[in-house]
Amino acid sequence: MNIRPSSFFVSIGLLFLSCFAAWSEAAGIIALKSAEIKPYNAALEGFRSSFNDDITEIVMTETEPAEVSRKLHHSGATAIFAIGLDALNLARSVRDVPVIYAMVPHAPAQNSDKKPISGISMHIPPDKYISSMLDVFYGAKRIGVIYDPKNSEAYIREAVQSAEARGVELVLKKASSTAEIPSLVDSMKDRIDVFWMLPDATVITPETVKYLLLFSFQNKVPVFTFSRKYVEVGCTAGLYTAPFDMGAQAGEMAKKILNEKNPKAIRADARKTVLAVNRKIIKKLGINVRDDVLKRSENVD
How many CA within 13 A on the CB side of residue 27? Predict the structure, then answer.
Protein backbone atom coordinates (compact mmCIF):
# COMPACT_ATOMS: atom_id res chain seq x y z
CA MET A 1 0.00 0.00 0.00
CA ASN A 2 1.42 3.38 -0.98
CA ILE A 3 1.02 6.28 1.37
CA ARG A 4 1.80 9.73 0.11
CA PRO A 5 4.34 11.46 2.43
CA SER A 6 2.18 14.54 2.80
CA SER A 7 -0.84 12.47 3.91
CA PHE A 8 1.34 10.47 6.28
CA PHE A 9 2.77 13.55 8.01
CA VAL A 10 -0.64 15.20 8.19
CA SER A 11 -2.03 12.08 9.87
CA ILE A 12 0.87 11.95 12.32
CA GLY A 13 0.44 15.65 13.04
CA LEU A 14 -3.25 15.28 13.72
CA LEU A 15 -2.61 12.32 15.98
CA PHE A 16 0.02 14.30 17.89
CA LEU A 17 -2.30 17.27 18.26
CA SER A 18 -5.15 15.09 19.53
CA CYS A 19 -2.86 13.42 22.07
CA PHE A 20 -1.49 16.79 23.13
CA ALA A 21 -5.01 18.18 23.48
CA ALA A 22 -6.02 15.24 25.64
CA TRP A 23 -2.89 15.62 27.77
CA SER A 24 -3.27 19.37 28.15
CA GLU A 25 -7.00 19.27 28.65
CA ALA A 26 -6.57 20.63 32.16
CA ALA A 27 -2.93 21.73 32.13
CA GLY A 28 -3.37 24.15 34.99
CA ILE A 29 -5.38 23.51 38.13
CA ILE A 30 -8.12 20.90 38.42
CA ALA A 31 -10.83 21.98 40.85
CA LEU A 32 -12.43 18.74 42.00
CA LYS A 33 -15.74 19.30 43.81
CA SER A 34 -17.41 16.57 45.84
CA ALA A 35 -20.84 17.89 44.84
CA GLU A 36 -22.61 20.83 43.23
CA ILE A 37 -23.65 22.81 46.33
CA LYS A 38 -23.45 26.51 47.27
CA PRO A 39 -20.67 26.30 49.88
CA TYR A 40 -18.40 24.38 47.49
CA ASN A 41 -19.15 26.84 44.68
CA ALA A 42 -18.32 29.73 47.02
CA ALA A 43 -15.02 28.07 47.95
CA LEU A 44 -14.13 27.72 44.26
CA GLU A 45 -14.96 31.36 43.59
CA GLY A 46 -12.74 32.35 46.50
CA PHE A 47 -9.93 30.23 45.08
CA ARG A 48 -10.31 31.91 41.68
CA SER A 49 -10.17 35.33 43.35
CA SER A 50 -6.66 34.73 44.68
CA PHE A 51 -5.23 32.30 42.12
CA ASN A 52 -5.45 33.60 38.57
CA ASP A 53 -4.67 30.52 36.46
CA ASP A 54 -6.42 28.08 34.14
CA ILE A 55 -8.86 26.07 36.25
CA THR A 56 -10.79 23.04 35.01
CA GLU A 57 -13.79 22.21 37.18
CA ILE A 58 -14.95 18.62 37.79
CA VAL A 59 -18.02 17.77 39.87
CA MET A 60 -17.84 14.20 41.16
CA THR A 61 -21.60 13.72 41.42
CA GLU A 62 -22.12 14.86 37.82
CA THR A 63 -19.27 12.98 36.11
CA GLU A 64 -18.79 9.27 35.49
CA PRO A 65 -16.22 7.86 37.95
CA ALA A 66 -14.06 6.48 35.12
CA GLU A 67 -14.02 9.89 33.43
CA VAL A 68 -13.09 11.62 36.70
CA SER A 69 -10.21 9.18 37.18
CA ARG A 70 -9.01 9.65 33.61
CA LYS A 71 -8.97 13.42 33.90
CA LEU A 72 -7.16 13.36 37.22
CA HIS A 73 -4.46 10.93 36.12
CA HIS A 74 -3.87 12.07 32.52
CA SER A 75 -4.55 15.80 32.45
CA GLY A 76 -1.06 17.10 33.14
CA ALA A 77 -2.50 19.36 35.84
CA THR A 78 -0.03 21.29 37.97
CA ALA A 79 -2.17 20.83 41.09
CA ILE A 80 -5.57 19.63 42.29
CA PHE A 81 -7.83 21.81 44.40
CA ALA A 82 -10.03 19.31 46.25
CA ILE A 83 -13.26 20.75 47.63
CA GLY A 84 -14.93 18.50 50.21
CA LEU A 85 -13.86 15.25 51.83
CA ASP A 86 -14.86 12.94 48.96
CA ALA A 87 -12.84 15.02 46.52
CA LEU A 88 -9.83 14.99 48.84
CA ASN A 89 -9.96 11.21 49.27
CA LEU A 90 -9.94 10.74 45.49
CA ALA A 91 -7.28 13.38 44.83
CA ARG A 92 -4.90 11.69 47.26
CA SER A 93 -4.62 8.74 44.86
CA VAL A 94 -3.02 10.89 42.14
CA ARG A 95 0.75 10.66 42.44
CA ASP A 96 3.21 13.48 41.77
CA VAL A 97 0.55 16.20 41.71
CA PRO A 98 0.25 18.61 44.67
CA VAL A 99 -3.15 18.58 46.38
CA ILE A 100 -4.65 21.57 48.17
CA TYR A 101 -7.96 20.97 49.95
CA ALA A 102 -10.75 23.07 51.44
CA MET A 103 -14.19 22.46 52.99
CA VAL A 104 -12.81 19.47 54.91
CA PRO A 105 -13.70 19.15 58.63
CA HIS A 106 -10.24 18.25 59.92
CA ALA A 107 -6.71 18.05 58.57
CA PRO A 108 -6.25 14.53 57.12
CA ALA A 109 -3.32 12.24 57.83
CA GLN A 110 -0.50 12.35 55.32
CA ASN A 111 -0.26 9.63 52.67
CA SER A 112 2.09 6.77 53.49
CA ASP A 113 4.18 7.71 50.44
CA LYS A 114 4.79 11.13 52.01
CA LYS A 115 3.09 12.98 49.14
CA PRO A 116 2.48 16.50 50.47
CA ILE A 117 -1.20 17.16 51.12
CA SER A 118 -1.91 20.81 51.93
CA GLY A 119 -5.05 22.73 52.69
CA ILE A 120 -7.49 24.58 54.88
CA SER A 121 -9.65 22.70 57.38
CA MET A 122 -13.00 23.81 58.78
CA HIS A 123 -11.76 23.19 62.32
CA ILE A 124 -12.73 25.89 64.82
CA PRO A 125 -11.03 25.74 68.24
CA PRO A 126 -13.45 25.06 71.12
CA ASP A 127 -12.46 28.27 72.90
CA LYS A 128 -13.74 30.27 69.94
CA TYR A 129 -17.08 28.45 70.09
CA ILE A 130 -17.42 28.99 73.83
CA SER A 131 -16.50 32.65 73.53
CA SER A 132 -19.13 33.14 70.82
CA MET A 133 -21.78 31.30 72.85
CA LEU A 134 -21.15 33.55 75.83
CA ASP A 135 -21.41 36.62 73.58
CA VAL A 136 -24.80 35.54 72.27
CA PHE A 137 -26.16 33.99 75.47
CA TYR A 138 -24.79 36.42 78.02
CA GLY A 139 -24.74 34.96 81.52
CA ALA A 140 -24.97 31.31 80.47
CA LYS A 141 -23.17 29.06 82.97
CA ARG A 142 -24.06 25.51 81.92
CA ILE A 143 -23.50 24.27 78.39
CA GLY A 144 -24.82 20.85 77.40
CA VAL A 145 -22.83 18.65 75.04
CA ILE A 146 -23.46 15.13 73.74
CA TYR A 147 -20.53 13.42 72.06
CA ASP A 148 -19.13 10.07 71.04
CA PRO A 149 -15.67 9.59 72.64
CA LYS A 150 -14.33 7.77 69.59
CA ASN A 151 -15.12 10.83 67.47
CA SER A 152 -14.63 13.82 69.75
CA GLU A 153 -12.65 12.87 72.87
CA ALA A 154 -9.63 15.09 72.19
CA TYR A 155 -11.82 18.04 71.23
CA ILE A 156 -13.87 17.69 74.41
CA ARG A 157 -10.75 17.63 76.58
CA GLU A 158 -9.71 20.94 75.08
CA ALA A 159 -13.25 22.31 75.44
CA VAL A 160 -13.38 21.44 79.15
CA GLN A 161 -10.18 23.41 79.77
CA SER A 162 -11.53 26.41 77.86
CA ALA A 163 -14.85 26.30 79.72
CA GLU A 164 -13.18 26.10 83.12
CA ALA A 165 -10.98 29.07 82.28
CA ARG A 166 -14.14 31.08 81.57
CA GLY A 167 -16.04 29.92 84.64
CA VAL A 168 -18.45 27.81 82.61
CA GLU A 169 -19.53 24.21 83.23
CA LEU A 170 -19.84 21.72 80.40
CA VAL A 171 -22.60 19.23 81.14
CA LEU A 172 -21.26 16.25 79.22
CA LYS A 173 -23.08 13.14 78.04
CA LYS A 174 -21.36 10.31 76.20
CA ALA A 175 -23.11 8.46 73.37
CA SER A 176 -22.04 5.27 71.65
CA SER A 177 -25.00 5.06 69.26
CA THR A 178 -27.51 7.38 67.62
CA ALA A 179 -30.37 5.54 69.36
CA GLU A 180 -29.21 6.95 72.71
CA ILE A 181 -29.48 10.61 71.71
CA PRO A 182 -33.16 11.33 72.56
CA SER A 183 -32.85 10.02 76.13
CA LEU A 184 -29.56 11.87 76.63
CA VAL A 185 -31.15 15.09 75.38
CA ASP A 186 -34.09 14.61 77.77
CA SER A 187 -31.71 14.05 80.69
CA MET A 188 -30.48 17.63 80.27
CA LYS A 189 -33.87 19.18 80.99
CA ASP A 190 -33.55 21.94 83.63
CA ARG A 191 -29.79 21.31 83.80
CA ILE A 192 -28.41 23.48 80.99
CA ASP A 193 -28.63 27.06 79.72
CA VAL A 194 -27.42 26.29 76.16
CA PHE A 195 -26.98 23.15 74.09
CA TRP A 196 -23.81 23.03 72.01
CA MET A 197 -24.22 20.94 68.85
CA LEU A 198 -20.92 19.37 67.79
CA PRO A 199 -20.20 17.97 64.30
CA ASP A 200 -20.15 14.43 65.70
CA ALA A 201 -21.42 11.80 63.24
CA THR A 202 -22.91 9.64 66.01
CA VAL A 203 -24.88 12.54 67.47
CA ILE A 204 -26.02 14.49 64.42
CA THR A 205 -28.55 12.92 62.05
CA PRO A 206 -31.73 14.40 60.52
CA GLU A 207 -33.79 12.59 63.19
CA THR A 208 -31.69 13.69 66.16
CA VAL A 209 -31.64 17.29 64.93
CA LYS A 210 -35.44 17.30 64.79
CA TYR A 211 -35.62 15.89 68.31
CA LEU A 212 -33.11 18.41 69.61
CA LEU A 213 -35.02 21.34 68.09
CA LEU A 214 -38.25 20.06 69.63
CA PHE A 215 -36.50 19.91 73.01
CA SER A 216 -35.24 23.45 72.44
CA PHE A 217 -38.70 24.88 71.73
CA GLN A 218 -40.46 22.99 74.52
CA ASN A 219 -37.90 23.88 77.18
CA LYS A 220 -36.74 27.26 75.83
CA VAL A 221 -33.15 26.07 75.65
CA PRO A 222 -31.19 27.68 72.80
CA VAL A 223 -29.07 25.50 70.51
CA PHE A 224 -25.69 26.71 69.25
CA THR A 225 -24.49 24.92 66.12
CA PHE A 226 -21.58 24.56 63.71
CA SER A 227 -23.44 25.01 60.41
CA ARG A 228 -25.50 27.68 58.71
CA LYS A 229 -28.03 25.10 57.48
CA TYR A 230 -28.94 24.19 61.07
CA VAL A 231 -29.41 27.86 61.98
CA GLU A 232 -31.77 28.07 59.01
CA VAL A 233 -33.88 25.13 60.19
CA GLY A 234 -34.27 26.30 63.80
CA CYS A 235 -31.07 26.41 65.83
CA THR A 236 -30.76 29.67 67.71
CA ALA A 237 -27.28 30.63 66.58
CA GLY A 238 -24.09 29.17 65.15
CA LEU A 239 -20.45 29.70 64.31
CA TYR A 240 -19.03 28.37 61.08
CA THR A 241 -16.31 28.93 58.53
CA ALA A 242 -16.70 31.23 55.51
CA PRO A 243 -16.41 29.15 52.29
CA PHE A 244 -15.39 32.02 49.98
CA ASP A 245 -12.60 33.16 52.27
CA MET A 246 -11.50 29.55 52.83
CA GLY A 247 -11.15 29.17 49.06
CA ALA A 248 -9.20 32.42 48.83
CA GLN A 249 -6.92 31.19 51.60
CA ALA A 250 -6.39 27.93 49.69
CA GLY A 251 -5.57 29.90 46.53
CA GLU A 252 -2.89 31.87 48.37
CA MET A 253 -1.52 28.58 49.66
CA ALA A 254 -1.48 27.12 46.13
CA LYS A 255 0.57 30.07 44.86
CA LYS A 256 3.17 29.50 47.54
CA ILE A 257 3.36 25.75 46.97
CA LEU A 258 3.67 25.96 43.18
CA ASN A 259 6.48 28.51 43.46
CA GLU A 260 8.63 26.08 45.42
CA LYS A 261 10.85 23.40 43.86
CA ASN A 262 10.30 20.89 46.65
CA PRO A 263 7.02 21.91 48.28
CA LYS A 264 6.19 20.69 51.75
CA ALA A 265 2.70 20.25 53.15
CA ILE A 266 1.10 23.38 54.55
CA ARG A 267 -1.85 22.98 56.91
CA ALA A 268 -4.04 25.70 58.40
CA ASP A 269 -7.44 26.24 59.97
CA ALA A 270 -9.88 28.60 58.29
CA ARG A 271 -8.89 32.14 59.22
CA LYS A 272 -12.40 33.59 59.07
CA THR A 273 -15.54 32.50 60.89
CA VAL A 274 -19.13 33.74 60.69
CA LEU A 275 -21.38 34.18 63.70
CA ALA A 276 -25.03 33.76 62.71
CA VAL A 277 -28.20 34.37 64.70
CA ASN A 278 -31.74 33.32 63.87
CA ARG A 279 -33.67 36.33 65.14
CA LYS A 280 -37.06 34.64 64.78
CA ILE A 281 -35.95 31.82 67.08
CA ILE A 282 -34.41 34.24 69.58
CA LYS A 283 -37.73 36.06 69.77
CA LYS A 284 -39.67 32.81 70.05
CA LEU A 285 -37.50 31.60 72.93
CA GLY A 286 -37.57 34.98 74.67
CA ILE A 287 -33.80 35.46 74.60
CA ASN A 288 -32.24 38.92 74.82
CA VAL A 289 -29.10 39.36 72.76
CA ARG A 290 -26.96 42.49 73.04
CA ASP A 291 -27.29 44.96 70.16
CA ASP A 292 -23.55 44.95 69.47
CA VAL A 293 -23.63 41.17 69.01
CA LEU A 294 -26.62 41.36 66.68
CA LYS A 295 -24.93 44.06 64.59
CA ARG A 296 -21.86 41.93 63.92
CA SER A 297 -23.84 38.72 63.37
CA GLU A 298 -25.28 37.38 60.15
CA ASN A 299 -29.05 37.32 60.33
CA VAL A 300 -30.45 33.95 59.23
CA ASP A 301 -34.21 33.34 58.85
Answer: 7
